[in-house]
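Memo to structure team: turn this sequence into C-alpha cells by end of day. - J.P.
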Amino acid sequence: MLDRPRTTPLAWGVGCLLVLGLLTLGVQQDWGWLSDVDVRGREAREWAEDAGLVGPLRVVEALFGTIGLTVATVVLVVAMWAKGHRRAAIYAALVMAATSVATTALKTVVGRERPDWQNPEALLSNNAFPSGHASGTAAFATVLVVLVVMLVRRAVVRRLVGVLAVLLTLLVCADRVLLGRHFASDAVGGVLLGAGLGLVVLGLHSPLPRSHAAKIEPLPETLPSDRRLAVVLNPIKVEDVAVFRQTVTTMALEAGWREPTWHLTTPEDSGTGQAEAASVEGADLVIVCGGDGTVREVCAELAGTGIPVGIVPAGTGNLLARNLDIPLYIRAAIDIALTGQDRAIDMVSVRGDRGPAGGDEHAEPVAEAAAEGVPPREFESHFMVMAGMGFDAAIMEGVNEDIKKRIGWLAYVLSALKSLMFPPTRIEISVDGGEWTKHRARTVVVGNVGHLQAGMPLLPDAAIDDGQLDVVLLYPRRFLSWIPLAVRVLAKRRHTDDLVNRMTGRTVSIRAGADTPRQLDGDSIGPGRELHMECIHGRLLVRVPR
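Reply from structure team:
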C-alpha cells in the first residue's frame, strides 16, 4: 500500500467520501429503504437490554468516546515522534484532527436527531449523523493499519492487526446501535468518513521517512559520480523479494547510485561467496540484508578491502545494527546505507577446537586431517558482535526454528527459560597472553559491543572501535541468584565478584574443563573446550547515521 502511487489511497479515500455523500443525501431525503433499515435499531436496542448487555456496551462507549480516542491518539503520536518517525506522527495527528472537525461539521449540516428509543441512561441530545464514535474509531483503525504495514515486517502480525482493526470498528458500530444512540446509517456514515479521511490524508502526506541526509551538509565526494552498488540479500528474510528489490533500486537511483547488482545467498553459501563476487565486480558499496549470520559473513569477506558495508537488519537479533544505531525499519536502514557516513569498526578473529558437533560449518580449517575423511581438529572463524560459552550458547542451540519463524525473538525467551540452570563449568582465561586464571561460570561472553536484545547493557564499557575485547563471566549459584545478577547488569554496576566478573584485553583465550556449547554472533558452532580471540582494530568500514 505504501509503495504504490499516492493516487491509489487518494482514489480509495475519495471513493469512500463519495459514498458518504450519497448516504448523506439519503438521510436528508429520508429514503424509504434506508428508513426501514434504521428503524430496526429499536428491536436491536430492546434485544440488547433483554440480554443484559447494557453494562458492557456502556464500557465500550466510554473507551471509544472523545476522551478515550484522544488519549490513544496522543500516546500513538508521542510514541512515533520519540522513535524518530515524525512524518508518521504528523500523519496520525492530521487524520484524527481532520476526522474530528469533519464529524462536527457534518453533524451541524445534516442536523439529524437521535433515535427516540435510545437507552435512557445519560441521554445524548446532540446531532446524530454521522456517529462520532464510529468515525473516530475508523480513523484510528486506519492510522494503526497504515503504521503497522509501514513498520512491522511479519505478515502474520500485519494481518492480525488488520483483522482486529476491522473487528474493533464493527464492535463500536454495533455498540452505538444496540444502545440506541445512533441509527445504523449514522454508524456507517462515521466509518466512511473516518476511513475515507485516513486514506485521503495518506495520499496527500506520506508517513514514510525522508532521507536522514536531506537536511545535512553533503559528505565530501571521494568516489566517482557513477557509483557502483551491490546488494547481498538473504531472500528468506524479506517477505517479497521483488518489492524489496524495487524499493532498493528506486532509493539508490534517487541517491545517485547506479542500478544495483544483486547477489542472493543460498543454504550452502550464507554470504561469503556473494560478498567476494561483489568485491571482484568493483562495487563501491555493498548493502547486506539478512540476519546477524549473513551480516557476519559479508562483513568478514569485505574486511580490509576498503569497501564500506551498508547493513539492512532483517533478522531476529540484529545486534550489530542495534549497537551501531542503525534503525530496524527497512526503508530507514536502506537510506542510512546509501547516504550515511563510513565508520571503521573492529572485527574479531577466532580459532578453537572442533568438538563432537564438528564446529562452525562456515569456519576455515587450520590443521589438515591426519587421514582422508577425518575432520580437522581446529577451526578459524570471526565475529562482529560477541562470542559465548555456556548458558548463552545453550539458548542459541535450544531455539526451535519453527517457533522462531512464528513468534520471533520470543523463541529465545522460551529457550532461555529452559536453559536457565545450565550447569556451571570450570574454565581458565588468559587475557593478552597473561597468566591463566581459574573460574567457575554458567556463561562467559566476549564482546565487541556492549548491548544485547532490548538494550541490556551486558558489557557497558565495550566499544566497537576501541581495539579491545570485553569479557563478562556470570555465575548465579541458585535459581534466585539471577535476580540480583539482572539488577547489577541493568544498573551497570562496575564492581566484580564471583557473581559478575569482568576483564578487558586485545586477545582473550578461554579453556573449559568439559565440552561446552559455544556461539558466535548468535550462531551455534557446537560444543568444544577452547576459544582463542583477537581483536583486529578498525578492520571494516560500515555505513552509520551521520
